[in-house]
Amino acid sequence: MTRTIPLSAPWIDGREEELVLETLRSGQLSLGPMVDRFEAALAGRVASPHVAAVSSGTAGLHLCMRLAGVGPGDEVVTTPFSFVASANCALYEGATPVFADVDPQTLNLDPAAVEASITPRTKAILPVHVFGYPAELAELEAIAERHGLAVVEDACEALGAEYRGRPVGSSGRPAVFAFYPNKQMTTGEGGAVAVATEEEWALLKSLSNQGRSDSGEWLTHARLGYNYRLDDLSAALGLAQLERLDEILAARAEVAARYGALLAAVDGVEAPLADDTEHRRSWFVYVVRVAAGVDRNGVMARLGEDGVASKPYLPSIHLQPFYRERFGYRAGMLPVSEDASARCLALPFHARLAAEDQERVVESLRCALE
Ligand SMILES: Cc1ncc(COP(=O)(O)O)c(C=O)c1O
Ligand 1 atom 4: the closest Cα is on which residue? Predict the structure, then answer.
């Protein structure tokens, strides 16, 4: 039997074991010092004054809707080419996600399409740095300023990315990170929100801790909150990963570069967009685009037979069954996103993917495309 090459794998080492064990032995498993240390380290890493740790990226996005004052009747302009959580968060607060199409190169929100989607009910713009490639923040910010809108960044796939020479997360607008095990770094489940002010941070801490009052009284609840806390074991794992983040990101970039070199000799497939002076990608996934007319399902079946995992990544959110039923979306409404969804394919990708395995992946892909 051929060994299957998985799509992703976390890189856990001795330091992670050490800090998690230290936390386990400390007996302080929640609301302890590891969360504070994790928040401070992450704030330093993304050059943001404050970071609030939360239980998932989805939880962070939901709380950012609260920060932005999004509520029933409001609209949030966002991208259809993303993971479903970036649109669902508006629905949690009774608002409507409005999808603007993406740029065919970057696969991120097209600012002109955003501008065209704004109505008197628009409250916020929610760009996603999809696949770790920074969105057009300057243009989106200018649109938001002209219309008096909030901006919330979904940076769940983009820890370590840079826009115009600055880390994603340092813009001054709330930016949400996620740490599921397929991400650049992991806490198991977990997320975090980078914010500019202490007031925003304190509100996030309260909202994620059952709306407890600022006075610290355990049974006083000043607002409607949630249990979106990150526990200390997860934070300890995250702290160890953060200490090694440069090493992890460099290894991922090396794996991506090797794929790029191998794929240059393969017809019928397009490698991910390269960085430029304004956009520096943090490698989250390695997603190729098969040429128009290629039978992607056939390619995936062939990869599967060769023991190579792959995934059609990402399906457009507006065509998910729930969105079709609730909002009446149909194919053809957001053609650029739909075309990307039809042709994108995620290949196995993680920091320690062996060169021989990458060669196996690309050889299988080459045969499948013949
Ligand atoms: C773009 C995007 N937004 C939101 C999320 C949600 O993060 P989590 O799975 O931690 O809730 C993810 C993670 O998969 C994501 O990729």
Answer: 85
Please give all residues whose beta carbon lies within 6 A of any atom in ligand 1, as ranges: 56-58, 82-83, 85-86, 128, 154, 156-157, 178, 180, 191
What is the rounded distance in angstroms from the CA atom of residue 151 to the CA atom of residue 137?
9
CA 190, 173, 145: angle at the middle one, nearest 5?
145
CB 59 within 8 A of CB 188: no
Query: Given 123, 183, 205, 311, which residue is catalytic?
Result: 183
CA distance 304 to 312: 13
Digitized pLDDT (tens) for each residue of the chain, 370 residues in all: 679 999 999 999 999 999 999 999 999 999 999 999 999 999 999 999 999 999 999 999 999 999 999 999 999 999 999 999 999 999 999 999 999 999 999 999 999 999 999 999 999 999 999 999 999 999 999 999 999 999 999 999 999 999 999 999 999 999 999 999 999 999 999 999 999 999 999 999 999 999 998 766 778 888 999 999 999 999 999 999 999 999 999 999 999 999 999 999 999 999 999 999 999 999 999 999 999 999 999 999 999 999 999 999 999 999 999 999 999 999 999 999 999 999 999 999 999 999 999 999 999 999 999 9
Beta bridge partners of 194: 51, 175
Residue to mutate (ligand 1; options 8, 152, 156, 282; most atoms within 8 A of CB): 156
Query: 366: how many CB neighbours lie within 10 A of its CB?
Result: 16
Residue in the structure block whose two tokens are 């300890």: 236
54: which 2 tokens? 């939360």
Neighbours of 138 (CB within 10 A): 13
Residue matched to tokens 């713009």: 125
3-state DSSP assignment of residue 185: coil
Tokens 């240059």 identify what position? Answer: 264
pTM for the whole structure: 0.97
Distance of alpha carbon 101 from alpha carbon 77, whole angstroms: 10
311 assigned to active site: no
